[in-house]
Amino acid sequence: MRKKFLILTFDWLSLGVIYNSLSYNTSNLGVNDYVAFFIGGAVELPSYVIAWRCMERFGRCLVLCVFMCVGGLACISCVFIPEEMPWITVSLAMLGRLCAAAAFAVFYVLIGELLPTVIRAQAMGLASFISGLGLLACPYIVHLAIYGRSLPLIAIGVLSMVAGATSLFLPETLNQPLPQTLRDGEAFGKSARLSSCMARTGEK
């Protein structure tokens, strides 16, 4: 339970930092702030539908990992884009934001299913508090743009890929009987391997 809680808390903290930093960083993308803000809001609309369809078919952990790694790669790729081509940077940053929003949608389902009923509210409250503290780093990440326009996106991308990789260490919850007591929570996923989330889970 401790291992799962620490991984979930780290993922929540990372998603919060990634999502908010991408939102605050729109003014550093080299295009009109209002246009960038509008596009950022528009790309979130399909993200929830995509996330819902994917996690119902492929499970939670693998989909969370894929969204975070794809978003991280999109952000890191901005380092190769010359400043004379800002719209390519905007497109990659918005792909990162779409993936971050989709990952958040998957994560909220996963954390609710992994934590046992008897401690779910307390554990989610503590994890939310810790992730809120992590948001203090967002202005500093965005401020890196004074040294290079792509530096905030590189930092966001690296954090996204690390957090995505850690999600593979969580047990899959799709089509599984969910834990109700502390004993259930301790036993849930105990025999799972790193590759278990790669396989389709069976029916109940």
TrEMBL record:
Short name of one Pfam family: Sugar_tr
UniProt xrefs under InterPro entries: MFS_dom, MFS_sugar_transport-like, MFS_trans_sf
Entry keyword Membrane:
yes
Residue ranges crossing the lipid bilayer per the database entry: 5-22, 34-54, 61-82, 88-111, 123-146, 152-170
The species this protein was found in: Iphiclides podalirius (scarce swallowtail)
Tell me the ranges covered by the Major facilitator superfamily (MFS) profile domain, including all copies: 1-175
Q: Where in the cell is it found?
A: Membrane
Q: Which PANTHER family match?
A: SOLUTE CARRIER FAMILY 22 MEMBER
What is the name of this protein? Answer: Major facilitator superfamily (MFS) profile domain-containing protein
Query: In what way does this protein cross or attach to the membrane?
Result: Multi-pass membrane protein
Keywords tagged on the record: Membrane, Transmembrane, Transmembrane helix
Q: What is the lineage of its organism?
A: Eukaryota, Metazoa, Ecdysozoa, Arthropoda, Hexapoda
